[in-house]
Amino acid sequence: MKLSNKELMRDLLWILAGNIALSAGVAWFVLPNDVLTGGLPGVAVALQKLIPLSPELMINIGTIGLFIVGVLILGKKFAMKTILSTICYPVMLSLFSYLAENYIPADTFIMDKYLATIYGGALMGIGIGCVFRTGASTGGMDIPPLVINKYTHIPLPTLVMIVDALTVLLGAATYGLQAALTGILSVWVSSFMINKTMLIGGHDAKNVMIISDHYAEIMDKIHESLERGTTIIQAVGGYSQQQKPVLMVVVVNKQLPELQKMVAHIDSEAFVIVMNANEVQGLGFSYEEEL
């Protein structure tokens, strides 16, 4: 699908913002405090005692090297989605490291290990999440799971978790168990923020299924009072083998108590199932009805 100029510009801004957040988290929190974490920053921290190179240089070399591997194995489509991050990330990381070393007081980012772990992991997660929103990749340690997945078809989330776990274990060999456990916390915070960032702009909503003999009255009341659309699903009772219309409606969280009271008032014996809906698109959610 070809993107419009507006969509392309939006995606470029998301990728740029993501790389800024990712670079800031690594340069200002992870590297100054030797925080073990997932991805290339974790590898650089783990290896800096063994390899006489700065962590920033190791990350930049790794980013470019893995990009070349990805292009050779995964092809042009991967390259198009990843090249901007491959350019931006090393540049931004070097810039933020330079600012920290030359224009910011030396001890500004030297802090409690757990604070650095939480805030560094959060910034990294926000950055990666911004890039993932566009369907692109941040490159780096995203690439080995993609390559392995191509040949083994092991699910990507499983491979990412394995790669991050191996990174933390590598750090445990050089920094000890406590540092490794702290690294696991960083990976968890980062994963949490990735998920939250990817849901920005969505609506926290509830998908409600209602089974009642008074479904028609309940449906009319929902249309009238909540101004939400409904769907009737024809189902068959497993025990009775009778036709049972199921009423489905999606409401925003604040409307749920009113819906529950409404259903209970009409039919106190109605069977109601409430499920989380992490993202909803359509009339009344992602766009409003034109008047």
Automatic annotation (TrEMBL):
Predominant location of this chain? Answer: membrane
Task: Report domain DUF2179 positions.
Answer: 228-282
Gene Ontology terms: cellular component: plasma membrane
Query: What keywords were assigned to this record?
Result: Cell membrane, Membrane, Transmembrane, Transmembrane helix
Topology versus the membrane: Multi-pass membrane protein
Pfam families on file:
DUF2179, YitT_membrane
Localization? Cell membrane
Q: What InterPro entries has UniProt attached to this entry?
A: DUF2179 (IPR019264), N-reg_PII/ATP_PRibTrfase_C (IPR015867), UPF0750_membrane (IPR051461), YitT (IPR003740)
Q: Where are the transmembrane segments?
A: 12-31, 57-75, 82-99, 114-132, 179-199
The protein here is known as YitT family protein
Q: Which organism is it from?
A: Amedibacillus dolichus
